[in-house]
Design brief:
- The protein has 15 helices and 3 strands.
- By secondary structure, it is mainly alpha-helical.
- The protein has a 3-stranded antiparallel beta sheet, with no helix packed on it.
- α1 packs antiparallel against α2, α6 runs antiparallel to α8 and α12 crosses α15.
- The chain is elongated.
Length: 301
C-alpha cells in the first residue's frame, strides 16, 4: 500500500482543480478537508485512498453513517471522492473508478431560512446610525438585503467597482464569475451616507483603505467573521432567531423578489447562479410561506 503518497496526490488534484476550474478558496478547502479525512481513515487501517476499491469506499461511507453523519454531509464527501477518482483515471494513475457505481444517499431538499419583510426591517433598523460604526453596519445590512450579496462579495467590494451615479456595482461571485448588480434606492441612500459621513473616519493610510468599501475600526477591510458576528448581534437586538447568518439576508432578497412576482431568470442573474435549478428553491420557499400565512390567518386554515 502506498499510504504516504495520498497527501501528495490530493494536493496535486487540488492544484489541478484550481488551475482548470477556478474554484473558490472555500470550495477547495472543503475538498481538501473531505479528502484528507478519508485518507486518514484509510491510513488508520494501513490502506491507501489512492488504491481503494469500491468495497473500501462502501466501508468508509458506512463508518460515516455509524458516526451519525447526515445524508447531506455524506453526499458531499462522496462527491469529493468521485471527483478525485475521476481525476486519477483521467491522468492515467488508475484504470478504474471505484466510486462510479456507489449510489449517493438520498438527500431531501432543505429550504433555506428566510425572514419576513417585517423581520428584515427590524434587523436593518437595529444599528445605531448616529455613530460611524452603526452607519457602516446599516449600510452593510442594506447592501446584503438590497443587492443579494454573498458575504464574501460584500467584504471584497471595492470603491473602484461601484458607481453611485448609475446605482450599480460589479461583483465577482463563485468561480470568479463577474456580474453587474443594481443597487436599490434604500441601499444606495445608506451606502452614500456611509461613504460620506463614516468611511473617512474609519479610513487609514493603508492600501486597503484606498479601495475596500467597508472598513473595520482599524481601517482594514471587514472579514467574513466580522460580518457574521455583527449579524448575530443585530439579530439579538431585533429579537430575531439566533441562527440568522449573513446568507439569510441573501435568501430574504431572493424570496421577497419571488413573492412579488419577479421573473425567476432575472433572480438567477441577480444572484449569480449558474443553474436555474439552484434559484428554483426560492419558489418552494415562497410557496411554503404562503401556506403558513394561510394556516395562521384563514378562519378555516
Amino acid at each position: 500500500m502506498n499510504i504516504g503518497s495520498d497527501a501528495t496526490a490530493i494536493e496535486a488534484f487540488l492544484d489541478q482543480l484550481w488551475m482548470e476550474r477556478g474554484l473558490s478558496d472555500n470550495t477547495l478547502l472543503a475538498y481538501r478537508s473531505d479528502l484528507n479525512a478519508a485518507a486518514r481513515w484509510f491510513a488508520a487501517s494501513e490502506r491507501s485512498l489512492q488504491e481503494a476499491t469500491a468495497g473500501d469506499l462502501q466501508d468508509y461511507l458506512a463508518s460515516l453513517f455509524a458516526r451519525s453523519l447526515g445524508a447531506r454531509s455524506t453526499a458531499r464527501k462522496l462527491s469529493a471522492l468521485r471527483r478525485y477518482f475521476r481525476n486519477l483515471v483521467h491522468s492515467g494513475q488508475r484504470a478504474d473508478d471505484p466510486s462510479a457505481l456507489i449510489e449517493s444517499p438520498k438527500v431531501g431538499r432543505r429550504l433555506p431560512l428566510s425572514l419576513s419583510e417585517h423581520d428584515v426591517e427590524s434587523l436593518l433598523a437595529a444599528p445605531d446610525t448616529d455613530t460611524p460604526i452603526g452607519l457602516r453596519d446599516r449600510a452593510m445590512l442594506e447592501m446584503m438585503y438590497g443587492c443579494g450579496l454573498r458575504v464574501s462579495e460584500l467584504v471584497s467590494l471595492s470603491t473602484l467597482n461601484l458607481s453611485a451615479a448609475q446605482a450599480v456595482l460589479r461583483v465577482w461571485g463563485k468561480g470568479g464569475k463577474e456580474r453587474i448588480v443594481p443597487i436599490g434606492d434604500h441601499a444606495l441612500v445608506w451606502l452614500e451616507r456611509y461613504l460620506r459621513n463614516a468611511r473617512p473616519a474609519l479610513a487609514t493610510a493603508t492600501a486597503a483603505a484606498d479601495e475596500v468599501v467597508f472598513l473595520s475600526v482599524r481601517g482594514r477591510g471587514m472579514t467574513r467573521h466580522n460580518v457574521w458576528h455583527l449579524i448575530k448581534k443585530y439579530a439579538q437586538v431585533a429579537g430575531l432567531a439566533a441562527d440568522i447568518s449573513p446568507h439569510t439576508l441573501r435568501h430574504a432578497f431572493a424570496t421577497h423578489l419571488v413573492n412579488h412576482d419577479a421573473d425567476l431568470r432575472a433572480v438567477q442573474m441577480l444572484l449569480g447562479h449558474s443553474d436555474l435549478s439552484t434559484t428554483q428553491i426560492y419558489t418552494h420557499v415562497a410557496r411554503t410561506r404562503l401556506l403558513q400565512l394561510h394556516r395562521e390567518h384563514h378562519p378555516r386554515g
